[in-house]
Amino acid sequence: EMFGQLTSGLEAAWSKLKGEEVLTKENIAEPMRDIRRALLEADVSLPVVRRFVQTVSDQAAGVGLIRGVKPDQQLVKIVHDELVKLMGGEVSDLVFSKSGTTVILLAGLQGVGKTTVCAKLAFYLKKLGKSCMMIAADVYRPAAIDQLMILGDQVGVPVYKEGTEVKPSQIARNGLEEAIKRRIDVVIVDTAGRLQIDKAMMDELKQVKQVTNPTEVLLVVDAMTGQEAAALVTTFNIEIGITGAILTKLDGDSRGGAALSVREVSGKPIKLVGRGERLEDLEPFYPDRMAGRILGMGDVLSFVEKAQEVMRQEDAEDLQKKIMSAKFDFNDFLKQTRAVARMGSVSRVLGMIPGMGKVTPAQIREAEKNLQVMEFMINAMTPEEREKPELLAESSTRRKRVATESGKTEQQVSQLVAQLFQMRVRMKNLLGVMETGSIPALKD
Ligand code: GDP
């Protein structure tokens, strides 16, 4: 089972929430420790783990309840979505040149599976209907060329070689020339690996890159090496400039650290993964499927998604009705501001509130404090006042009471009431209903 240990480590986190009604700062503390431990044991790099745990905690503490969804299920969903983001979100496709021959340059340390990947990639591209050629530019490992020849035979793809006495950049240049002559769609250049990074290897790669002008420079890394793989991707990117990584040996007992760290640490995507020794064991890297596999809870995820969708739909319809009938009240105000704040774009909702204007990131904290002040005041209103803001507009006694109970000034309460009516108008305008006369003057 891929990432089995990580999966069961995370299961410990969910199990701590069984029987809870809601997610709170307090009751997620222990599950978050489990998540942190599980990720560290999976060999995810420490800064990545820290950021991840922080983000998930923040989200979990502020998340609204979804009808019918239990807190542990909700946390699974939050972790899933953050794992997907961590791995780059979308699948990162191979790029082909718009016309002529596409060059894919493969780099990697010895033993990571580079030569195998070369053949797997040719096999994969052939299935996509592209003609391929492999260039044997690994002149240091004597067996490498023979190995590539054998694989080329298996795949049915020609291999260009000039033995081990010619410079790799020379072989690559000649091979590419030959491929262009034969109108080959994609050329895959297999370069030499070393046991560890050295200057000679980097220089050679730079030369090969220079003469072949590749659209893809992919570093092959071994998933078993965990966060070290992510560090390698970073180094190669700085040294020679790469477009992505291919992660091999995901079928083994790799712990997940590489898959989870590469993107975040290096900024470069994993484009393909190898999941076995056969030619067909190479596939695109899908962050969402990978996250799903790690969590092993596909049913829970789709259930939470459906529930969220239903809630969104109902909320939206409900809100629209209310706005159209000028019933947008303080309960909706609260719900809306919370929802948008949760989505991390406080600035957007504040932009909708007159008097707050545009908000820079630096002011967001201030803005969040303001939201909290609003919440205090709304909490001090009676249910009737929340539903009928007119009551507050019409009575300064009520406004004074709300001020006293929330520890704010009457002026602040008056401002909030005015804001609600202004928001009604704004939202109506947003929906294309022109109406300007509905802001009542506050009465004494
Ligand atoms: P190179 O030195 O980087 O060219 O590595 P090779 O392509 O020769 O592969 C080294 C070893 O790893 C070989 O025994 C391969 O069969 C094996 N290997 C490569 N990719 C995978 C993979 O995705 N899964 C598994 N289980 N083994 C792999």
TrEMBL record:
Keywords carried by this UniProt record: GTP-binding, Hydrolase, Nucleotide-binding, Ribonucleoprotein, RNA-binding, Signal recognition particle
Domain (SRP54-type proteins GTP-binding): residue spans on this chain: 269-282
Enzyme class: hydrolase
Recorded superkingdom: Eukaryota
One GO molecular-function entry: GTP binding
Gene Ontology terms: biological process: SRP-dependent cotranslational protein targeting to membrane
GO cellular component: signal recognition particle, endoplasmic reticulum targeting
UniProt record similarity statement: Belongs to the GTP-binding SRP family. SRP54 subfamily.
Name of this protein: signal-recognition-particle GTPase
Organism from which the protein derives: Dendrobium catenatum
Covered range of the whole protein: 87 to 530 of 575
